[in-house]
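Please describe our next protein:
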Amino acid sequence: MTVTLIAAAYNASAYLPRFFASLDAQTYTDFVVVFVDDCSTDGTFELAARLGAGLGERMHLLRKERNTGLVGARNAGLDYVTAHPSPYISFLDADDFFEADYVGDLLRTARETQADLVVAGIRRIDERSGRELACEMVHAPQSFYADSATCDELAFINPCSYAKLYRFDAVQGVRFRNIARSEDTCYLFEALPHLKRVAFTNRARYTYCVHEDSLSGSFDEAVHASMHDEFAKMLAGYAGEGRQAYRAMFETQVFIRSSVGGLLRRTWAGARARSVAREERAWLDEAMPSWRTNPYLSGTGGRTGSPKRRALRACAALYKCNAAPLFVVAYNLYVRATGKEVRA
């Protein structure tokens, strides 16, 4: 099989009919599904076995003996692919859905460009209302980069594992880090030095569903500390040969996930914005002091036109003058007024 799709699931039975309907509808069928059930208690394993029966030998169902979270489940899927390799891998979330030409479009782009990494667009919708929250498209000046180290777009894209296609022989030794959140960011940037050719489809055929608890779900000081620990470990490794070119990109992603996303999520969960912002700036200055001169955060690198880039640079400027809580106020007002998220 050409593509292996790794799907991790925990108590996802309510969403599996839609998920497997998306798989059954794919116009490109030369794929294998590795479905990893992370000790669900709602019948996810049994339902996946029944709904996936139509895939025949293309369906491989794994059940973890103990709950290890998304990181452990995805790594179990990667271990399976290591033992049963295919040219490409992609990740899916079992509570999401995707259009009929989703897999085919990714693979077609990879073959046409010989890319090691293909990045697609993403639709984000509110699960309860069906309202679109954002459509994350890259809109890059070019759709193909022969050297990922020169692709500034990687500093700003959503680093999620879904809506991407990886050439497996390049990333077979990479695993997800044991981090409470932003495991996708770490995975992508550990893989990037091995992924030289990058292509963007600029088509959003994957739909990510935001649930009621998605915005603040379990994001507290401990989760933030876990992110800080793993980010700091990765930052220490960027002095090595072949990785320096990606440091400014990774720093930008760290700022987005921790200093912007972490600040917003913790305040949504009830923390005081002033205290969180003060702690975050202290961490940035200690673990990543170059954030102050980072070209993407200071406005001297990359394109400047999109709302996401402008908002990001405004937030960095507010951090520098100890006024980051103003960003929280501005962002919340924007979301209330427009019903949209600043994503692309």
Q: What stands out?
A: The mean pLDDT is 92.
